[in-house]
């Protein structure tokens, strides 16, 4: 059994109980970690407040990662509240709706910028902010998707942003390795999250995974949370810069 008692885990990207961030929070909390659960804005505060009582030891923080001043103030609050960070989870991605639904050739300059800023650059920003608090080393984890490697209908610029995110994982792993901080990503199978609602024909993607994946089913949030628990624990002490698939094996299939 993995024991994270005494560890502090900061998790960005909570939207509601269907969020992958929530599945990860549950698993890390069950292992004994103290959780800082972060949501983007006031609209999502109610969701966070409703979920907090289900965790053993947790507090909620509001932080819009597209605003540098909010990142700075939030990490200052972490320092005051916890004194350190051991685990940092980045479950954040966004692209404007039109950039997702339109043909990729019509991706706008601004839509491309926003998708990469929110979905990839924010991992760099929070890793840098966390660095002074990760004095004992630690683990940083983000979430990707197979659309970073292969073309998926209606994923478009988000697939390109996820490819940038995966490259960011490798460069951060090299940058932070000397400080005993590991950086990894989970490439999760499709899950009915709030973000997934913006992807056209998402049900078709779910059905295709069920048909073709070796396990003939889709993954759920808690299974992703279990993999996250492993990657953020001492059991994964020699693993960094990796993209780990948690997709019921879909990524290994051809026809």
From TrEMBL:
Pathway: Lipid metabolism; fatty acid biosynthesis
Binding site for NAD(+): 13, 19-20, 40, 92, 162, 191-195
Leading EC class: oxidoreductase
CDD domains for the chain: ENR_SDR (cd05372)
The enzyme's E.C. designation: 1.3.1.9
GO terms of molecular function: enoyl-[acyl-carrier-protein] reductase (NADH) activity
Location of the active site: 145, 155
One record GO biological process: fatty acid biosynthetic process
Residues binding substrate, per UniProt: 95
Xref: InterPro entries: Enoyl-ACP_Rdtase_NADH, NAD(P)-bd_dom_sf, SDR_fam
Gene3D superfamilies the record matches: Enoyl acyl carrier protein reductase (1.10.8.400), NAD(P)-binding Rossmann-like Domain (3.40.50.720)
Catalyzed reactions: a 2,3-saturated acyl-[ACP] + NAD(+) = a (2E)-enoyl-[ACP] + NADH + H(+)
Top-level taxon: Bacteria
UniProt keyword list: Fatty acid biosynthesis, Fatty acid metabolism, Lipid biosynthesis, Lipid metabolism, NAD, Oxidoreductase
A matching Pfam family: adh_short_C2
Family in the record: Belongs to the short-chain dehydrogenases/reductases (SDR) family. FabI subfamily.
Protein name per Swiss-Prot or TrEMBL: Enoyl-[acyl-carrier-protein] reductase [NADH]
